[in-house]
Design brief:
about 400 residues, Rossmann fold, disordered N terminus, 8-stranded mixed beta sheet, 2 domains, alpha/beta, about 35% helix, 10 strands
């Protein structure tokens, strides 16, 4: 027969220098067993007095237990750990932003965090699944900017401007009845987020500027240095293709985008060390990066290649206005970022009270290279600390 050991409850009572340890056991115990459980050593001549000592210690223990049970229980001081939901429903739809349908995709619980993507002309898809853990504490609202992803495209590309996209963000905020929001912008989305804050900061609780720039002029200087650091062979190939013109080559269906050769040279070789460092995406394909909104891209970025911004985005010069931003702001960049960390440091200097986080071994895709550090920086910034009770 198998017997399960009985649990022992141990309590100690101190009285007159005597410590007794009393344990529960099934049935009666022998004298020798009790002697071994008493917290002092008995000489042989003390054995006749053992029963009285046991009685004394037991009586003291009973009194202590009785008194302690009669005292009011003290409520322990501890940090309240809120229970997190386990079910996360996805909602999607469109908001009519002054005649342009803007696609949104939401998930999560808590204060709203609206997220705007880069490109210009990409979509929100590249944030997923990396930013999903933020949904445990915040309602995430991803949008596709006008002309991008699932949002409505314009017949006239001149409607693709930072200023119009600012109004699209505001229309989404109002249309979804979000109230005050935290706004996170990555890459070009960070430019859009700055422009929004400069006009509508009264609607913001937090501003998060990730791997971005406040001056197109300074960003173009970064591109000049980037080219200087290339191998001569790569730089010569890129310069030659840019000199010949990057559009209108090949079969008709390819004339409206970069050639595969240029995309591979620019994005796969030139940009790559500044996009990924610690954890490159094994599915990264420079040619697949060319699946974008090209009419928007050429209108805003320009048509002269990846290493100069000469479209209408060149009007983005916000450095002198950044000191007017009073919204709590965090600026995040990778130490090998395409948007050089020096740009982030300058923004940090201009925005009073802002925080600056430069992630190690990280390129432009900080949330891919250093997901734990990125998510921790965002969460610590926008989520208030748990209250003690």
């Amino acid at each position: 027969m198998c017997t399960k050991p009985l649990a022992r409850r141990t309590q100690k009572a101190n009285r007159g220098g005597c410590t007794c340890t009393v344990g529960e056991a099934e049935g009666s115990e022998k004298i020798d067993g009790l002697v071994n459980q008493i917290g002092f050593t008995l000489n042989p001549e003390e054995i006749p007095y053992m029963n009285s000592r046991i009685l004394l210690c037991t009586t003291v223990l009973v009194l202590i237990v009785s008194l302690s049970s009669s005292l009011p229980a003290k409520t322990p001081t501890h940090v309240v750990q809120p229970s997190l939901p386990t079910d996360y429903q996805v909602q999607e739809g469109f908001v009519d932003a002054h005649g342009v349908l803007i696609y949104y995709w939401t998930i999560g619980h808590g204060a709203p965090l609206l997220i705007v993507h880069g490109g210009p002309g990409a979509s929100h898809d590249y944030f997923l699944p990396y930013l999903l853990p933020l949904a445990r504490r915040n309602r995430l609202i991803f949008i596709d900017e006008r002309g991008s992803g699932k949002s409505e495209k314009l017949e006239d590309p001149r409607g693709y401007t930072v200023e119009n996209m600012v109004e699209d963000v505001e229309a989404v905020r109002q249309g979804l009845h979000l109230g005050k929001i935290s706004l996170l912008g990555h890459s070009y989305g960070g430019v859009l987020a700055q422009a929004y804050a400069l006009k509508y900061q009264q609607n913001l609780t937090h501003l998060l500027l990730c791997s971005t720039f406040a001056s197109t002029h300074e960003m173009n200087e970064v591109f000049v240095r980037m080219k200087e650091q290339m191998t001569p062979g790569l730089r010569d190939r890129i310069n030659q293709m840019e000199k010949e013109g990057l559009f209108g080559h090949g079969l008709d269906y390819r004339k409206g985008r970069y050639s595969d050769e240029y995309m591979t040279a620019a994005w796969g070789e030139g940009y790559f060390p500044y996009v990924y460092q610690n954890h490159p995406d094994p599915n990264f394909d420079p040619v697949q990066q060319g699946v974008t909104s090209w009419d928007l891209y050429r209108e805003m970025w320009g048509s002269d290649g990846e290493f100069v911004i000469d479209g209408n985005l060149k009007s983005a010069e916000y450095l002198d206005r950044l000191p007017t931003i009073k919204t709590p702001t965090i600026i995040i960049a990778g130490d090998h970022d395409e948007c050089d960390p020096s740009l982030s440091r300058e923004m940090h200097d201009k925005i009073s009270g802002s925080q600056l986080v430069v992630l190690p071994k990280s390129g432009h895709m900080t949330f891919v290279d250093q997901p734990r550090l990125f998510l921790a920086a965002v969460t610590d910034f926008i989520t208030p600390p748990l209250k003690s009770k």
